[in-house]
Amino acid sequence: MSIEAIDIKTRAAVYAALGDPARLAIVDRLRLADASPAELSALVGAASNLLAHHLRILATAGVITRTRSEGDRRRAYVRLKPDVLADLHLPPRVTAPRVVFVCTRNTSRSPLAAALWQRHSPVPAASAGTDPAARVHPKAMAVARRHGLRLTSAKPAHVSEVLDKDDLVIAVCDTAHETLTNHPRRLHWSVPDPVAADTDAAFDAAFAELDDRVTRMAKLLTDNGRDHR
Predict the structure, then answer these.
(1) Which residue, of 73, 88, 103, is where some domain finishes?
(2) CB 122 within 8 A of CB 99
(3) Calpha distance 229→224 (Å, rounded)
(4) pTM (2 decimals)?
(5) Which domain holds residue 9?
(6) Which SS3 state, helix, strand or coil, does residue 155 take?
(7) Is residue 210 within 8 Å of 113, Cβ to Cβ?
(8) Which of 71, 88, 105 is the last residue of a domain?
(9) Tens digit of pLDDT for each residue in 15-38?
(10) What is the dihedral of CA 49, 53, 56, 61, to 10 degrees?
């Protein structure tokens, strides 16, 4: 069988999996952020057994995967596999005057995400932490330099000092997402904490995942007509 035939079969399985309104709604939601099964159940109004059926079809087609929370280990999150819908050319679905990336300590994932966002989008970005540390992690600054970004001006800040009610908040760690429950506009990217491993490889992996997610999200989000000059 040729590579082209294999690719056609794979794409056909994806399109077949999306041929149900509930599954399409699930995928639309996951294009923006990761979500728990409970959130997806509420979204599509499906009982747990029916939701499990939908998720199984999406997983079999290679559309989604699941991860365990680094914060509350009892929780699981469903996420879209990168690039699986790249050829669908779906339109933007979100507007916001500013994006604020949040993690717990505001030392690596959130400042890196904000710096990457400024590279890919004219919509302003900031970062904050639910329990900020005293400084940005040196390995986060190093990985940023390796990719042509600068974090030297970044200083960890508490969410209460940064957030406005109209901001789109993207929690880039499980603990921050599970802590920050009162902001009306919040999305979640379940990005593993590179500080836990404290290796260059872990920071490179976190940077690569954030770069991929930011690149995709920047295509889906527009501002509210604010002049950014």
Answers:
(1) 88
(2) no
(3) 14
(4) 0.80
(5) 3-88
(6) coil
(7) yes
(8) 88
(9) 999 999 999 999 999 989 999 999
(10) -160
